[in-house]
Amino acid sequence: MPAPPRYRDRLELLQGTLDLLILQTLRWGPQHGYGLTQMIRVNSRDALQVDTGSLYPALHRLERQRWIRAEWGVSENKQRVRIYRLTATGKKQLAAERSRWAQLSEAIAGVLNPVRESEA
Q: First vs last Cα of the chain: how many Å apart?
């Protein structure tokens, strides 16, 4: 069954990529869950849509690992929300995740665009 039109051009996230996206987004400043999803969507030019069913388990996992911390706050709409912040440990983890992502991207690029012996 084909994807509905509004989701057809969206990209599926590789396992573990959501953690990297959350950590990077929180690097720009504290944010509540809905704000995180919107920042990821906007910065990916609408290519990435994070569902709440994926976001909140990831946030809870990152919090258990002490890469982020949460506290109650008030949103722009005057609603009580959990505000997530990157911890010092989270900043170190983000650096490691970015390094792994760069290695993975380079490896995939090598497969997609191999350098042949005759071209080297």
A: 44
How is residue 33 written in tokens? 């869950």
Q: Residue 44 is which amino acid? A: S
If phi over 0 gives left and psi between -120 and 50 gives alpha, with beta otherwise, what is residue 29?
left
Tell me which architecture the domain covering 8-110 has in CATH: Orthogonal Bundle (1.10)
DSSP collapsed to 3 states, the chain: CCCCHHHCCCCCCCCCHHHHHHHHHHHCCCEEHHHHHHHHHHHCCCCCCCCHHHHHHHHHHHHHCCCEEEEEEECCCCCEEEEEEECHHHHHHHHHHHHHHHHHHHHHHHHHCCCCCCCC
Cβ count within 10 A of residue 22: 28
pLDDT in tens, 2-43: 555 555 555 566 667 999 999 999 999 999 999 999 999 999
pTM: 0.83
